[in-house]
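@channel sequence for tomorrow's demo:
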Amino acid sequence: MSRLRSTRTAWGEGALALLAPWAIAAAVTMLLAWQHVVLLRMWDPDDYMRLLEVRDWLAGQSWFDVTQYRLDPPRGFAMHWSRIVDLPIAALTLLFRPLLGDVLGERAALCVVPLLILLGIMAALMIATRRVGGPAASFAAPLLVACCPPILFQTMPMRIDHHGWQTMMAMATAAALLDPRALRGGLLAGLAAAIWLSVSMEGVPMVAAIFGLVILRFLIGRDDAGHAARLQGFATAFAGGAALWFLVAHRLSAWGHTECDAMGPAWLMLIGGGALGAIVAARHLATAPRAVRAVPIVMGTAMGLTAFLHVAPLCAAGPFGALDPVTRAFWYDHVVEGLPIWRQSADMQGMILAFPLIGIAGLALGWCAAETPAARRQWASLLLIAGAAFALSLLVQRTSAVAHGFALPGAAWLLARALDRVRKSHRLLVRVVGSSAAILAASPLTATSIGGALIDAIDPAPVAQQGQPTPLACAQGCDRWSALEALPATYILSTLDVAPSLLVHTHHRFPASGYHRNAVPLRRTITAFTGDIDATRRMMTAQGMTHVLIDPEADEAQIYIKAAPHGLMARLMAGHPPAWLQPVALPGSPFRMWRKIA
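structure tokens (generated this afternoon):
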């Protein structure tokens, strides 16, 4: 009876340690995002596009078809996104509609889904931290997540793109890999990795690193049975889960071709080859010499890689390898989330660097302090994963949330150790001040602020313009959409970054937005604003475009002006449109619009 009571108490304490920081974070982020919620103002173009994808699906568009037909009509814009991310948004929208109505029901779903993902991230990190650092450290983990800027941004209300999902699946993979029950942990980790890549192939480098770690533990570990079970479980669930979801989410015709930016036959061949070799080694050669165990793994991976390169050779250059120079220079090279650390602002550099380094130091110290070989292996595994994620975040900014998550158990362990020492003091002042100082020192917010300030002090030079869309300048109470919505539906030439918000708030059609599969309309739109103005007029006539619309406050406009000081964008921004464009009044709107008259 006492054991049952003790278990219930532990569960209750764990639930409180998880739910209290989550509730506080949910309330604070809801407060910060309230204007976005009320005005249906998403955080970036991808969130708008995700909302459109869900709306179109609920309106009858096929489960298998994620094309956005109001971009580059009538062909439409090919998208590469996963229905996994759409499912909870659609489900909660349908659930809330009868209770709140169509508008509020959708708005509630857009708030609840990211917050549930935040809860999932906290839970996964709490489990992972407990498995390496013990109960006290695990209770600190959700608290640190609640003040971790890159994770919070990806899980803000109205932030419905796939980055939150990627972070959650990454943390779930790590937590499962640390499971003391090897087979169960391997199966769950492999399934989480399969979902991770099915959501986005951006996770390929980290999933490859994690798969490599599982193989490494099998090859050099002494507990052959446990490492073999973990490897077999991971490989089976990873390959099987990826193939199963592809079967569910795609028409049979999709098995005949591969896109580099999404799960497809070529990727499944690569995964399948590596997984097959790993399963053979784990199942039949667990007690063989290390060199022998490595043979089927190397052979399977080589076969999978050969098949991958044969079926999809262009994918060796990555999903953006086929971009033409114009599109790369004007669009891709200005996408902040894809840029390396040296192209970021001082604040962003501080965020990328500071907290992960503290967490990695904590993981290293935890490894040194571990008392058993099994514990040292757990710490070492997480340390290697966190190190790989940190290195990747230096090259690609969008991976910083994952890097923070993997490093967080180390910071939580440091915080727990510091609090334990402070509590032993007999002085109340020492306990209060010491506890507060320890929490502040371990907080990602503190690390980010200090790191950014130090970098700015060392190198105050401004960073190159990033080209990220800015909020539209608008006086209080202005209505930015109604004047546009009042116009008859038509085909409007607009810039790339503003198109998704226009699609959500108006019934018009637009030529392009920043999605790389659609190289021709992307380049056509860029050259319309930067190339020969007469050629732009002819292109608009040929495509059936009737109007031009720009956002004067967007960074994209400045990029075009800098590159083409005599181009269409420069003329429009200077108030000197060509004779074939006639101004259209948009009362209360920050946009500028012209009608094509010749």
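heads up for whoever presents: The radius of gyration is 26 Å.
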